[in-house]
Amino acid sequence: MQRHLISAADLTRDDAVLILDTAEEMARVADRPIKKLPTLRGRTVVNLFFEDSTRTRISFEAAEKRLSADVINFTAKGSSVSKGESLKDTAQTLEAMGVDAVVIRHSASGAPYRLATSGWIDAAVVNAGDGTHQHPTQALLDAFTMRRRLVGRDAGLGKDLDGRRITLVGDILHSRVARSNVDLLHTLGAEVTLVAPPTLLPVGVETWPCEVSYDLDSTLPKSDAVMLLRVQRERMNAAFFPTEREYSRRYGLDGDRMAKMPDHAIVMHPGPMVRGMEITAEVADSDRCTVVEQVANGVSIRMAVLYLLLGGNEPAVSHARPTEEK
Amino acid sequence: MDKQQDQQQEARPVLEGPDIARVLTRIAHEIVERAKGADDVVLLGIPTRGVFLARRLADKLEQITERKMPVGSLDITMYRDDLRMHPPRALARTEIPGDGIDGRLVVLVDDVLFSGRTIRAALDALNDIGRPRAVQLAVLVDRGHRELPIRADYVGKNLPTSLRETVKVQLAEEDGRDTVLLGAKPAAPGAHP
């Protein structure tokens, strides 16, 4: 039996709704004076971060500690990885220490999948972002934020995002957040539209379960949520658009553009935001922008995922896709 | 042989609707009597059926005391000691009344008291939420077979059972009718949920 969360595409609708509902209960723990549950007492979780990410790591760490797990943080910098140790050797070291779960962030797409399926380690593997491939807990926390804002906190329990129209704007090519979101939102019944310059769309995007547009202004009036993606300059090895100014003019969200959105529509961003380029300060600081909520929701979602994968003697989350990988 | 006969035996009702209403009324009066007016009582039901019973008790207490009775629910799933013996369960709702439980008399309400492990988990959960003045326990049915030194303060009906029997509580809010059924346990032996 598999007990990993590698890709948002692995989740069935029922799994995804179960995770969102569980996260809603976990969010209540955050409102209490003692934000701790004994659920994972005696279990060891390793945060294995081969790529820098303070935000995701502390989010996972907070979730693990709130569930009383023993947490080991591993960053590649200054470890034996910089001396040339392979992923396999690292995994076998962790296995020998009796680790129950590994939360892995890696710059290589597919590293978590390799770790989960190679037989090197018996622990549950949770993908915390691999290359340009997937970031499933980010997609889940985004869906959670949308459900809370668009359907309602208590009214949303048991429900998906059927018929909601979500627009993702920006650097789709380099974005694991976009890939994970398209997969999950499609599973949850939402209609997704990608808006980006043609140079920032991946080959084969026409096979994804979503619409593609190059024109942000015409998409805004029919969007329930608009998610801006960070332009990932660190992954860009060529010129994908002429100037930042032009990108900002065509694909950035400012106050005037936000006014074209329906009144109930929300603005989302996975962070970190590049203010002035993808989003103006006016939009980022408005009460329609959910960036800070997304961070808080991230802890609840990660608690839910860890509870459902590790809380019992077998995971509660099933797997739609058994072995093949994109 | 015996077992097969048991399994064929129909579950028989030991408490019907009017009996349940009557024992809840009695428990409500006992709470008022023991808590000397029930001024600081908070009722917390344990999902699923304990919550319905807590609400019914609150209604009855309101009739007696003519005061609004704070009532909530306490999910104990995350505090169970058998979590790792089963797949993880979906969580139920924990709702603590606005004024909290600090310094109050918390009455936990559940449908069946069996091993006592659920109540142990509930006491742990309470510990994380606040510090009540005292905690009491009200159950509709006490079927015995305790595995921990825990007893109820208010019992609707003491029901001596064998471990081969099951006690099933049905309430109108969830099951469409009020009844307590005593039946034979199907096949594999396992712990009380």
From TrEMBL, chain A:
It is an enzyme of class 2 (transferase). L-aspartate binds at K83, R176, R230. Pathway: Pyrimidine metabolism; UMP biosynthesis via de novo pathway; (S)-dihydroorotate from bicarbonate: step 2/3. PROSITE patterns: CARBAMOYLTRANSFERASE (PS00097). InterPro entries: Asp/Orn_carbamoyltranf_P-bd, Asp/Orn_carbamoylTrfase, Asp/Orn_carbamoylTrfase_sf, Asp_carbamoyltransf, Asp_carbamoyltransf_Asp/Orn-bd. The keyword Transferase applies. NCBIfam families: asp_carb_tr, PRK00856.1. Belongs to the aspartate/ornithine carbamoyltransferase superfamily. ATCase family. Heterododecamer (2C3:3R2) of six catalytic PyrB chains organized as two trimers (C3), and six regulatory PyrI chains organized as three dimers (R2). Catalyzes the condensation of carbamoyl phosphate and aspartate to form carbamoyl aspartate and inorganic phosphate, the committed step in the de novo pyrimidine nucleotide biosynthesis pathway. This is Aspartate carbamoyltransferase. It comes from Streptomyces rubrogriseus.
